[in-house]
Amino acid sequence: MHIDRFLAVRTSCLTCGATLLLAVVGIMTPILCSAKTTRTTYRYTGDIHFDIAKIPFSRFGSYMAFSELSGSQESSSLSKLYLRNMRGGPSDAEHPAFKIELLREKKPISFSILASPTLLHLTAEGGGVDIFFSKTNRIRFRANGVSVSFVSVGPEHSEARENGHWELESNSGISEKYMLSALNGGLSISPATPDAPMAANFTPSSGSNGIEGMIETYDDKTVPSPVHGGFTSEQNAVKQEYRKWLNRMPQVSPEFGAGAELAAYVNWESVVAPKGFLDRPAMLMSKNWMARVWAWDHCFNAMALSFRDPNFAWQQFIILFDNQLPSGALPDTIRDATQETKYSKPPIHGWALNWMMQHGGYSDRKHLAEVYVPLERWTNWRLQDGDGNHDGLPKYNTGPDSGWDNSTVFQSGVSMETPELSAYLVLQMDTLSKIAHDLGKDSEAAAWAKRSDQLLQTMLTKLWRADHFVAIRADNGAAVESESLELYLPLVLGKKLPIPVREKMIEGLMRQGRFRTDHGFSSEALTSKYYGADSYWCGPIWAPTSMLLAEGMDSIGQKTLAENLRLDFCKMAQQNGVSENFDAQTGNGLRDPAYTWTSSVYLIFAHQLWASR
C-alpha cells in the first residue's frame, strides 16, 4: 500500500541509546525501544522535514504560508510553489497570492523543496534559495546562483517606492498590501501582458551571484518596519522562538515522539495574529483551506495546550466567547474578516472546561469569573432556544449544528433531539454548578445541579430504548433509524449513566464488525448502507469523537478500552499524519491533511499514554 511521505524526524530512543530515523506518515517501520519500568520522556528537537503539498510552511502569528498547489494550478508550470495569504475572502479557498519561480537567463528552471519548521530550502542545479519568516508579516530570502521571481496570481497594482522598494496592492479580494525589497541585488517589476501576469523579479547585481530580498504584508493602518538584523541572526532568533514553543508541548514517550514533532509544528504554524474578529492570537483549524476557528474544534486545541502552556490555552478556549452573540449563541466560525452565524456548534465547552480545570488549573477566581456568565448565557440559549416544543429536550436544527454535518441522524431533514446534545448540556450545567459554588453563588450552584439532573432524567426517559439511544424528530417525537456513532457519544456522561445503560453502550460499541476497527471507531457502522470510506461523518474516524469516547470509557472504569483507543489513534496518526479525518479501515488520512484538532488530540492521547506508564 502506497502512503504519502509527510515527514522525517531524527530522534533518540532514550531507552535503547540508539539513534533512529523514523519516517512518519511515510512508508514506516515501527521501531520500539526495549521496555523498562521507568517512564522515559521524548525530547522535542524540531529536526523534521515535511511535504508542503500537505503541510503549509508558515509560522506562529503569520497570515502567510507557502504551499505546493499542484492539484489546482496549471499543470505545465515547472513551479507549484505558492505564497498564500489567509486574510479575507472565503476560508475554503487556497488564497494563492504569488507563484515562486527560480530563473536562469530569465527562464524558469525546476527545483526541489525541503521544508522544516523554520526554514524552506529550494535547490536547483547550480544554486538554491533559503526562505524563512523573520516576523509574522515579513519573509526574508537569500539566493545563490539563481534569480527569484514572485509571479502575481490575479491582477495587482504596482508602485515604485523610495530606496528601491516596490509596493504591490492586491485586487483579488484580500485586503493586504505587499512591500517587496531587494537587500542585495536588483528588483524589477514585469508588468502584466495579455500572455503573462505581473511579476517581481529579484536578480543578482553585476559581478555577483547572490541575492537577498524581503516581502512584507501590511494594510492601510500599518507600514513595514526597518530591517535591523542580519539574515543568519534573524533566522536563529526564529529557531529560538520555535524551541520555546516545543518546550511547552505535552510530554510524550519516545514511541510517539515523531508524531508529536509533526503535531507540535502544525499547531505552531496554524496560529494567526489578532485582527478583525480575532481579538487574540488564534489557532486556525488549518492554513490549508479550513482557515477558520470553529466553535467546538477550538476546545480540543485549548485542552492540548493546557498541560504546559496554560495562558495560551485559555486564549484559545475563550476566543469564541469574545464573539458571543447578544442572544447568548456562539457563532459557527470566526476568522479575521468574517463571523458565520447561520449555524452553531455542540456545547462541549462545559465538558472541555471541566477537563482543563482537572488537568491545567483555571480554578482561580479570575478565570472562573471571566467564564461564568458567558458559559451561562451559552447554556441558556441552547436550552431555551433549542426547546421549541417544550418537551424538556434541546434540539439541533441541522446537522452542522451538531458538528456532524451529514450524519444519518439528520436524514429526515427536520430538527432533531439527539442524546449527545442533552449529555453535553448535562455536563455543562454540572460545570456551571461547580463554578457557581466556587464563586460563592450557592443558590445558583444548586439550581444548575437541579437542572442538570432533570435533563439527564428526561433524556434517559425519552431517548433510551432497551439497549441503545435514539434521536427523535422535534416535530412529532418519532425515533429515526440511524447507525451513527453520534448516538454513542452520551458515553461521555460516564458514571452519571445508570450501570445497565453503560454496559449496553459498551456492548453496542464493541460489537464485532460494527464500529471498531484496528484504528478506532468509524463514524457510521461498517454494516450500514450509508457507510463510506471517505464520506465525512458517515464512515471516517475523527479525533474529537475518539477523545469523547476515550474519556467516557475512562470515567466508567473501562481503562483498557480507553487506552487501546488512544494507542490505536496515535499509531494511525503517526503513520498517516494529522488529517481532518481518517479512513476507518485503512487508517489513511482524508480531507485537510494539516488539521489542528487532530494534532491536538494526538498530543493529548500521547501524553495520557506517557503518563499512564
Automatic annotation (TrEMBL):
GO MF, one example: Glc3Man9GlcNAc2 oligosaccharide glucosidase activity
Chain ranges of the Mannosylglycerate hydrolase MGH1-like glycoside hydrolase domain: 293-598
Pfam families: MGH1-like_GH
Keyword Glycoprotein on entry: no
One annotated GO biological process: protein N-linked glycosylation
Family statement drawn from the similarity comment of this UniProt entry: Belongs to the glycosyl hydrolase 63 family.
Protein name: Glycoside hydrolase family 37
Species for this entry: Capsulimonas corticalis
